[in-house]
Amino acid sequence: MKRVAILGYGVSGKAAYRALQTQGCDIYVFDEGLKKSNIDKSFFGKDAKKFYDFEFDEIVVSPGIKKSHPFIVYALNKNIPVISELELGFRLSKCPVVAITGTNGKTTTVSLIEKIMKANNKKAVACGNYGYPITQAVLENDNLDYLIVEASSYQLEFIDTFKPFIASILNIGFDHLKWHGSLDEYKKTKLNIFKNQDKDCFFIKNSEDDYSYNGKATLLEFSRNRENSDCFLGIDKVVVNYKSKDIIKNVRLFGYGNAENIAVSMLVSRICNLNGKITKEVVEKMENLPHRLEFIGEIDGVKYYNDSKSTNIDSVVNALNSFEGNNIVLILGGKYKGESFSKIVDLLKEKTRAVVVYGEDKKYLMNDLEKLIPIPLPAVNIKGAVVAAFEVAAKGDIVLFSPGGASCKPYKNFEERGEAFKKEFEAYKDYYENTPGI
Hints:
alpha/beta; Rossmann fold; Protein-Tyrosine Phosphatase, Chain A; 3 domains; 9-stranded mixed beta sheet; 6-stranded mixed beta sheet; 20 strands
């Protein structure tokens, strides 16, 4: 009987446990962050150190555990295979996999591809970093035509046989460097997505990204600069050239970065020989997902957009470039990741009326933006940022909540942060519209 350790017992760890049960494995669970569990052979809190007392044939690691963790270092030094839940799920899957990674836009692309597949009567499930673990998707769905997998750099760090039929890297920017150690390591991990592909597979690349493709799969590219690329991203359209020409215009999916998401989705559809008319209709009807350039309302002619999913500078740039003109009041904040916001000062001068900075790391952002005129306005929290942004905005302006950093206290993730922004907007809107004399 194969003895397997699971490191981390969150959503993916629990899914991996159930999957390994079906394989008749002898399973041990270790999680330093939890206090107790009712499952057999589980070790939590301080007891997790009993990991060293056992010999394992393989280790399944959850996305929240770094490669530098002592358990993983120990296992690798002893040549014990360490795999991600993504790798485990792939081993158990029985259908072609479409895998999407990138710094920004993964979830929107995976969601769009799933909608396209289902509209074309394909049995497909979106999973992975999308929130539905791949092992769970495999166990709960029979006779799938495709698995549509959102693959994070954390998951791609520990793959072995993972070989998607179609893989794509939407973009590579500055992110997760505290985790991976350097931009080169982060990029190297992303490139793992095509390392096992062969000539029967396809890889879709952003031609503007600065890495060389050395894989064996058929290469397709999308580009903002080359009109003859497999998919060209124009100012107000996406032009598909692969197999046959088609032009996508007047879509509801709003935002500069969404052109990349549409391009990859269209190319996946062409590779899979799906109905072009049906695919185009799905793309044209797709709307922004929550917390991704989500229009949430208007106060006295000032429009508010929630882009809480913005956790890096590249996503801020995409958000700013999604609007014409220079009438944006931008709200920045969140945990500082080390990349200087000074590199976008010129863009901020071009696109914004003002910048509001909130949160525990606002001193770093204020320092980065010291050359920005007018000087950024500090706010204690999101509530203060909502009010400050309105105070400096004029009718016809846009307040854009695109933090550019990871969530900080009291919010666990970008979803909680985005919901808080919407709640504070609604509260201030109600106050402004129902208070006499304002």
